[in-house]
Amino acid sequence: MKQKQFPSTHPGRASSHPERTQLQEATVAGVRNPSLAEKRREQICDAALELFLQKGFASTTIRDICARSGVNQASIYDYISNKNDILRRLLNQLWFSSGAPSLPDLLAEHPENTLQENVAFYLKEFWSKRRKGTLLAYRTVPHLTKEDRKAMRARDEQFISRLAESIEDLTHLPENDPRTLIVANLVLFMANFGPLRDWLHQDLDNDMVADTVAAAIVAMIENLARYSPEQSESPSIQD
Amino acid sequence: MKQKQFPSTHPGRASSHPERTQLQEATVAGVRNPSLAEKRREQICDAALELFLQKGFASTTIRDICARSGVNQASIYDYISNKNDILRRLLNQLWFSSGAPSLPDLLAEHPENTLQENVAFYLKEFWSKRRKGTLLAYRTVPHLTKEDRKAMRARDEQFISRLAESIEDLTHLPENDPRTLIVANLVLFMANFGPLRDWLHQDLDNDMVADTVAAAIVAMIENLARYSPEQSESPSIQD
DNA sequence: TGTTTTGCCTGACAAATGTCAGCAAATTGT
DNA sequence: ACAATTTGCTGACATTTGTCAGGCAAAACA
Question: Which of A8, B69, B135, B214 could tie B120 with a disulfide, CB 3.0–4.6 Å?
Fold first, then answer.
């Protein structure tokens, strides 16, 4: 109940994993029953997410979260170790393990579709499954530690380099051409387009936006391929 | 010194201007000398901006701002009326009157350049002149009032519809085709690309990114033009 | 039924925060 | 040099905040 126990007090331990694939969650020993603890943590995180998106992290109080989740102000510390811990747990589930697909996987699994179709599908999935994660991440950067930011960037860069490889294949650009990286960045960025802009713009049809953006991405990639050194004439992008 | 005087206590007055073109700044009568007041306000805003971007709005305290700007904790209220007022003043100068050019103007003033050159120039200017404004805006949304958000959106939408008109001209798409609007949105969004992503990615050459993004935008627009109903064969985009 | 365990909650504390009253210091005008 | 005005500042206020100690009731167990 009272005694919390912090993870990896061994200082050398954390850095033995060179790339952490998640953010460190404090282990809290307030409540014995693990399934109950999990259930409460879910309540807490659900409430916190809504509030963080609505009012921002810093001006959401523990009292707000308790009121909304129905958990008592004292009890909450039996399930989470502090306010930042809630944020980390949220990012773990929304940023690191959101159900959003990856474009390279999609291309490999559905070669029967055109590039444009696959990209459009990818965008729609991403926008619906990662909306909140993206919003939360972009808005709470200042409240994250340097290490957490680094872990998040690492995750993104992993996506991006896989994407860059795909683009390399599509365009036949050489491996060291930085433009594949840039375009990969751009694609990921456009995948964020919906969530990030929705505070500004909510009156456009989502599917049509996705289709237009997909067309734009395809045009981008085709344009890159057109100036590839290996194939200067209309390369075969359609797979 | 002590007496503050708040603007437009007449409730009906503010809404007589249908589109406010800035955010409401409280008039503070603490200090008589207007140039001194302006100088102090600048100190305060400069310090506040750095801190807001570093630590976020809510967790930056008035004491932080005072320490950094050299203004006394009590005196600060002789120059600004409250913490939110600082944010509004910052957004007024960084969002509403940043020196960033508009792409339609650029196209009109420099018809001797290619579309790609103009777009690339636009992006570089935007990224350098509007970087902080964009970051600040996107991160502080939750702390703005509904009216303020509306005013900011209005500003953006004004840009976007002018841009959509330009794209209409370039692509010869009909006026009611929503894709021009979507592409205009995308262009503005990509103009935000640099600032927003720099917490994730700082190791790419800025100019090369701008050139590649410009190429992507041009490809997007050409692609749109290619399927325009009026000109189905390679339309003349180069001006 | 009596005891022990487990989860919940009332109440509170120390620290931090936005805000300012009222006075001291400096500047200005004469 | 003096008075009047303008600016700067010490110190403090009421609140809000994150966090928890310690007790209480219900459930599990004997």
Answer: B214
Other CB atoms within 10 Å distance of the CB of residue A38: 12
Confidence of residue A224 (pLDDT cuts 50, 70, 90): confident
Give the CA A81 to C1' C11 distance in Å: 21
Closest CA–CA distance from residue A200 to any residue of chain B (Å): 5
**CATH domain A98-226 topology:** Tetracycline Repressor; domain 2 (1.10.357)
Higher pLDDT, A66 or A203: A66
Q: What is the pLDDT of residue B112?
A: 97
- Which residues of A are less than 8 Å from B53 in CB distance? 142
Contact assessment for residue A95 and residue A133, using Cβ atoms and an 8 Å cutoff: yes
The mean-pLDDT minimum among A97-101, A186-190, B225-229 falls in B225-229
pLDDT digits (tens, 9 = 90+) for A56-77: 999 999 999 999 999 999 999 9
- Nearest CB partner across the interface for B178, out of A143, A208, A215: A208
Please state the domain extents for chain B: 14-95, 98-226
Kindly determine whether residue B56 and residue A57, on different chains, have CB atoms separated by under 8 Å.
yes
Instruction: For residue B70, give the nearest of B79, B81, B57 by alpha carbon.
Output: B79
Whole-model pTM: value is: 0.86
Cβ of A1 less than 7 A from strand C = yes
> Which fold would CATH assign to domain A11-95?
Arc Repressor Mutant, subunit A (1.10.10)
User: Any alpha helices (H) in A172-238, and if so which ranges?
Assistant: 178-191, 193-197, 206-226
Asked if the Cβ of residue B2 lies within 7 A of any atom of strand C, the reply is yes
Amino acid, res. B119: V
For B14-95, CATH number out of 1.10.10.60, 1.20.1090.10, 3.30.1360.120, 3.40.50.12500 equals: 1.10.10.60
- Decide if B25 contacts B45 (C-beta within 8 A): no
Q: Which of residues 43-102 of A touch B (CB under 8 A)?
A: 53-59
Encode pLDDT of B64-102 as tens digits: 999 999 999 999 999 999 999 999 999 999 999 988 899
